[in-house]
């Protein structure tokens, strides 16, 4: 399936940054979502594992109380199939993840299972479904796996800067 648009893979930490409204990240994330939304050929990919990893906001944990509005916001992210496409975490992904964990050992690296699932999901999609332009994450420990998966690993960034007239600054 050839892709024309921009296909980004998001690690769960990007979604968590969005839900938590992290001031240094949320504007960039919102701008990426706008770019994806404006281009019908572009999409954000993630593993179904993200549904588990993005289970609550930091404020809920701090207050030891869940908020139905936050759960609704989390569900809304997953429900917008025009922007976010899920890659099911089945045996095909699990085997690739296991291989990545094992291949990291000779380098002296330790790859956590959940991180391996995300890397394997992007790798699988890139090999068997269609290109993945970038794997975006705020976890810089994953950058070294770029050559193992054959996909550029970057911090989230926009393709074009947008001017925020409300704050008189560029994003």
Notes on the protein architecture:
The chain has 171 residues and is α/β, with parallel strands linked by helices. It has eight helices and seven strands, in the order E-H-H-E-H-H-H-E-H-H-E-H-E-E-E. The longest helix has 16 residues. The C terminus is likely disordered.
Task: Give me the secondary-structure topology.
Blueprint: E1 7-10, H1 12-19, H2 26-38, E2 43-47, H3 49-53, H4 58-63, H5 68-79, E3 84-87, H6 91-104, H7 113-128, E4 134-136, H8 146-149, E5 152-154, E6 163-164, E7 169-170
Parallel strand pairs: 1-2, 1-4, 2-3, 4-5
Antiparallel strand pairs: 6-7
CATH architecture classification? 3-Layer(aba) Sandwich
CATH superfamily: 5'-nuclease
What level of helicity do the residues show?
40-55%
Largest sheet: 5 strands, parallel
Compute the gyration radius: what is it? 16 Å
Instruction: Output the structural class.
Output: alpha/beta
Stated plainly, the CATH topology is called Rossmann fold
**Contiguous uncertain segments of 5+ residues:** 167-171
| Number of discrete domains | 1
User: Roughly how many Å apart are the termini?
Assistant: 32 Å
Q: For the record, what CATH class applies?
A: Alpha Beta
In spatial order, strands of the major sheet run: 3-2-1-4-5
Order of helices and strands: EHHEHHHEHHEHEEE
